[in-house]
Specification:
Structural class: alpha+beta
Distance between the termini: 39 Å
Order of helices and strands: HEEHHEHEEEH
Largest sheet: 4 strands, antiparallel
Helix content: 25-40%
Number of helices: 5
Shape: globular
Radius of gyration: 20 Å
Length: 291
């Protein structure tokens, strides 16, 4: 993974927002993003609702090389590893949060991490289904770094620098905000039925081409560099959206946007099919007039 802007952009786009948001069954291009042992238990803490481990017994922090317990700025403590240095913790299947297909937030510095990273997080504009007045929270730079390691990426000298992670996060967040705005355009057709749709869950499906993306490749166009499926809660009714991410080749310096997004409801219900047909008709009839 290089230090170039387009590499940073590709790394950022693929990691979904975390609930405290696509990641995928296969490894995406480092767009977008823990390993051993037991430790003594701690007293139970008041964990934020976005933390998927709120019902689990917490473990003590990983000891540092000096033997003292390390203090990690994590809102969701994770089980520690044996040994004298911080280590990535293996994830069990039941540790995965089904709403974003991600393990619990990990704010711990990884072994041999070349520089420190901020653990602060940004709240998105995307409302979270099942929660009153709550929005999805984006990962911190440290969480994003750990997620990339979990997906198999390893830092090498000259890859990325400390300042690059800030840009990667901004690109990642901008892409998710852009995707949500595209979802809202579709949901506007159902405003009378539901005036406040919310994001219920999401997951990455890199390498699993959507039917439309596959047809485009047959026609000679580039494949999307990533795919996400989002489940939107339309006031009690779940609607699946497919988002294909295409590289536009440049990052807008002011907005940090770099991807071309193809967002649409999946062909898995009569209502979604009817919406797709209406929008296709509108584009055919009015796109040329606007040009």
């Amino acid at each position: 993974m290089g230090a170039s802007t387009s590499t940073q952009a590709a790394a950022a786009a693929a990691l979904p927002v975390t609930g405290s948001p696509d990641n995928s069954p296969s490894t995406p291009p480092p767009e977008c993003p823990m390993h051993a042992g037991g430790a003594a238990s701690q007293p139970k803490q008041n964990i934020p609702s976005e933390c998927p481990m709120h019902a689990a017994e917490q473990k003590t922090a990983v000891p540092t090389s000096g033997g003292d317990a390390a203090s990690y700025p994590s809102e969701c403590p994770m089980s520690g590893a044996t040994g004298g240095s911080p280590a990535l913790v293996p994830q069990k299947a039941d540790d995965i949060d089904p709403t974003n297909m991600m393990p619990p937030p990990n704010q711990r510095p990884s072994p041999d991490q070349p520089f420190s990273l901020p653990t602060s997080r940004v709240t998105s504009s995307i409302p979270k289904a099942g929660k009153e007045n709550e929005k999805w929270v984006y990962p911190s730079e440290q969480m994003f770094w750990n997620a990339m390691l979990r997906k198999g990426w390893r830092w090498k000298s000259g890859d990325i620098e400390q300042a690059d992670m800030g840009n990667i996060i901004r690109i990642h967040n901008a892409n998710n905000e852009q995707a949500w705005q595209e979802v809202l355009k579709w949901e506007a057709m159902h405003a009378k039925q539901c005036s406040e749709p919310k994001l219920a869950s999401f997951g990455g499906r890199y390498g699993d081409l959507s039917p439309r993306a596959r047809i485009r490749t047959w026609m000679g166009y580039d494949e999307p560099f990533d795919r996400h499926d989002w489940q939107v809660d339309r006031c009690g009714k779940k609607i699946r959206y497919i988002i294909d991410y295409y590289d536009s080749g440049a990052v807008e310096k002011d907005t940090y946007k770099f991807a071309i997004l193809d967002v649409r409801p999946a062909f898995d219900s009569l209502g979604a099919t009817w919406d797709r047909m209406k929008v296709a008709y509108w584009r055919f009839m009015y796109a040329k007039k606007e040009d």
